[in-house]
Structures are given as structure tokens and as C-alpha cells.
Amino acid sequence: MLALDIKHLNKKYEHFELNNVSFQLEQGYIMGFIGANGAGKTTTIKAILDLIRADSGEIRILGKNMSENEIELKQVIGSAFGDMNFYTRNKIKTLTNVIKRFYANWDDETYYKYLRKFNLIEDKKIAELSTGMKVKYSLAIALSHGAKLLILDEPTSGLDPIARDNLLDIFRELVQDGEISILFSTHITSDLEKCADYITYIHNGQIINSGEKEQFIDTYRLLNGKKDQLDIVKNQLISYKTSSFGFTGLIHTKDLDPSLDIQWTIPNIEEIMIYCSRKEDLYV
Amino acid sequence: MYNLLIKELKLGVNPFFYALPFLTGALMLIPGWLYFLVILYFCFITIPNMFAGYKTQNDLIFSSMMPVTKKDIVKAKIGVIVILELLHIVIAMLYGILTLKLYPHMKYFFFAPTLGFWGLCFVMLAIFNIIFISIYYKTAYKYGAAAFVSITATMLFAGGAEWLSIQNSYFYDLFKGSGTDNVAVHLSILIAGIVIFAIFTMIAYYIANKRFEKVEI
What is the ipTM of this complex? Predict the structure, then answer.
């Protein structure tokens, strides 16, 4: 079953638009949602959570239409915004006591289990928690009300490498049983290499590519050629950089002619992101 | 809706604002004072502070992430405003009774704390609600303009009512002359005030709801 199915999502603002955004996430997997700052990650996430109304398109969560079943589906969605805090001067205890009332399937036992696991102290105020702890608190809340889909906006931004690695391990653990699915946006590509099953890449409000991680990477090749070879492949390249030694450019694997004598490597996600975003600059 | 109301009362409203009516209400003990001010302090102090809190604590996103309808978010917010307004009026009324007992032969220049006066206070809050709530829900977070316009309107109403009761012989007689003891008339004004308060607040809810539907969070 699809945990998340987004079809032809459009939303126009004065200076920015989401253009025909479509992607799917299978239940029980982790999808990394990557893109530069301002690419449309948060806007897409807000549209999924019905915080903004899309101009057109359809969002289905666990097989049900989000706009028609918003209240029911929000019972099984856990969400967190990495850079946003609520009622920070209140204690965890106070906030939880208010939040738990909203959820029909709230389970205190699970909640306390996760508090212990994440070393969260109920008497601490939200403001006293580190960034990583805040994300863990959001996870504890989501898991205690039986969330099946976690939608996390930049949960790893602002975390030190150890806390980030720790959080990614938790993500992997959560999806192990195949019931929980996670969509998390990030611009830190190493997060994805560590823990994502699927990758969706958004740039300027458009989905550039979405698919299983290995497949996603395999779509591209990074060419390292001499200057005189550039003209041969220039038109097929997504974008390229030149140096005194030659050029480096990204190409779709299908456009790569194996008979050409140009060195190539498999790019990493960061390189894919950088070269895909340069494409736009070239045509300006 | 009930859960949201609990959220408002536990998180949204600082406990100080539950205590404030006892402080502002005590101003009723000042003999012959301009008693409209006692209720106006709710509009001057509680509302801007409370809504500043909502803004800084990202209450709008917090509420919207919960499994609730937009309608219920508006309903709960208006609910908490009404609860606090009633708290202010009822406590001021109790102090008002004490004032009447303390100074039985007081000659009032401004309104005396009669039942009719409380009816006028309800009308004043009705005006405040319809303006404040409907302007606020254009954005659901900007409260400055909404507070400014609504407070101006309530002050104009209070000023106008005071002026009328001084200048107009009928109103003077009703509120400060022989009409003061006419419980039936004063009770009718109070009931009419409560009805206007209820109707205006419901209209405010209706407008707020329509506007909030279009608000993007």
C-alpha cells in the first residue's frame, strides 16, 4: 500500500510555484525529500498536511483522500517542523497532557517507553531541550498516538553529526516492522545516503526525480573529460563545470554513449543536486 | 472543540489573565469612577497580550497540526474570549454590588453600576467582538490593527453612552435619576445587552470562519 501518494500538485504564489508535484511513498519505507533552501520542500509538506490549500492536485494518505478525510488522517500522521517550536516555556508534561486529548489512540505506556528511550525528562521545559531532543519529543508524541506516517520537515538541520546519526538510526528502527513510513525533508545529503530508501528531489517547485535510492543515483553519471571532448557531449549534459584540466558534467545515464572515450563515475547525491540546480543557471 | 478549548485555557491563556479580573474589578470600588474602564481594561490588556502570546508561540500551526477542523479552531478561540469577558463582567458586577452597599448615597456623574449599565457593557463587548474577531481572522495572527480598530469603537461607544446619560434628560433620569430604581427597565437593558452580545459574537464567528477558511498557514 502507498503511505503517501501525491498527484499533480500545483500551488501558485506571486514569486514561487509548486508545479505538477507528484511522488509516491510505499508503506514501511523512508523517503528523503531533498532540495535547496526555498526549493518548495516546506510548501509541499504544508500542502500534504492541508495547512495550505493546493490550487489543484490530489493527496492520498494510506489510500484515503487527505482533503476529504483530514481529521481522520491527522490521527495517524505525526509531524514535526525542525525549526519551529510551540509553547516553549511550558513543561513537556503540560504540553503532552494537552496534546494527548486530541488523539483517540493515545497510549500512555508507549509514550513513557519513548520518553525513557529518548532520555526525555517530563519536567523539563521545551525551551530547555536541545534541537535533537525536540525532534525526539515530536517523535515520542507521534508514536504514542499510533502515527503510521511521519512527516518531518528538516528534522536533522541544526543537529550535530552524532545527534543526526542517532536520529537516523531511530528512523531505521521505526520502519523496521513495515508499518510506519517516514517522509523527511533535508538539504543534508549524507542523511539520505545513510538512511533513505527513496529519494525525491525538488528544485524550484518542480520534482526533478523521485525513486528508489540506488535507482535514483543510477539515473545519472558524472563525466570527467578533456576540454576538447566537451563539445561532443555538451548538448546531452545536464550541466557542467570547466577547469584548466577539462570539464566535469552530469549526464542522464540513458544519454551516455558508451562508445565515447570519456571517463565517468557514479555521482553522489550532493553532486546530483548541485549539477541539477546549475542547469537552471545555465539557461538564465 | 472541547479539547481545543482546554488547550486554550491551559496553554494559550497565562494564569495572570484569570487573576486580572479581580484586580480590574476592584477598581469598581473607586466611588463614582468611570466604570466602563473596568471592562475596557480587558480590551486594553488581556486581548493584545494573549494574542501576542499566540503569535510568538506559533499557536496557529500548533492548532492546525492537531486533528481538528478549522471551524473548531475559531470556535475555541472565540469561546475563550467569551469566557474571559464573562469573567471580567461577573467579577466587576460583584464588586459593583459592594460599591452600591459601601456608598449608598453616592451622587454619580458617570454611570452607576446598575443592571442597565452592565447591559451597556455587554453591548460594548459585543461591538468589540464583532470588530476584533472578524478583522483578526483575515490573517489569524496579526492582532494590532484588529485591536486598534475594535478598541477605538468600544471607546467611542462608552464615551457616547456617558455623554448621552449626561446630556439627555431621559437617559439621565433613567440611569442617574428616579429611573435608577426601576429594576424592570434595567433588567430589560441587561437582557437586551446580553442578547446583542450573543448575536454579535455569533456573527463574528460566522465572519471569522469564512475568512479563516481562506487563511494559509
Answer: 0.85
